[in-house]
Design goal:
Layout (H helix, E strand, L loop, with lengths): L2 E4 L22 E7 L3 E8 L5 E2 L12 E2 L12 E7 L5 E12 L8 E9 L2 E9 L4 E10 L5
Antiparallel strand pairs: 1-10, 2-6, 2-8, 3-4, 3-7, 5-6, 7-10, 8-9
């Protein structure tokens, strides 16, 4: 069971959806940031040990959280998906941040919609938001992973 609490991101509609994938292993925590081609967005996850996993700090020393891919403006695929995985998620509070690192050629000054998907133990929670140029949302989404068995 996960306790979810949304943070600072605004809700917005949009066609973004997480791509289908296979089921997670027991105890695995998967956090995905889904976005289009208008901007280079970066996913940040601060784990219960207060270490932040992102493109410049992967894997984490204590929790072993790992960023699977850092997709930039030159990644032609859409939607783009950045994923951070914790194979054996620690109990405690996790904070998800989203940074608009760069506006891509097709993006202009429009807000870039995004989708954050959190999956643990068969549970899934989603948050839709958008981010303007030059912004960093340090707490777009926050949740608690209770202790005990995965």
């Amino acid at each position: 069971m996960i306790g979810f609490a949304a943070g600072c991101a605004s809700s917005s509609g949009g066609p973004l959806s997480a791509p289908p994938r296979t089921a997670s292993a027991p105890g695995e925590l998967r956090i995905e940031l889904v976005f289009g081609t208008g901007a280079d967005l970066d996913l940040y996850v601060t784990d219960p040990a207060q270490e932040t996993v992102y493109y410049a700090n992967s894997p984490a020393r204590v929790s072993a959280g790992r960023l699977q891919a850092d997709l930039r403006c030159d990644a032609a695929v859409a939607p783009r998906v950045e994923t951070i995985v914790f194979e054996n998620a620690l109990a405690g509070r996790y904070r998800v941040g989203v940074d608009r690192a760069q506006t891509c050629e097709s993006g202009g000054n429009a807000p870039e919609p995004f989708l954050v998907v959190v999956e643990l133990g068969g549970q899934r929670q989603e948050l839709r938001g958008e981010i303007r140029p030059g912004r960093f949302l340090p707490k777009a989404f926050e949740f608690e992973r209770p202790g005990g068995e995965p």
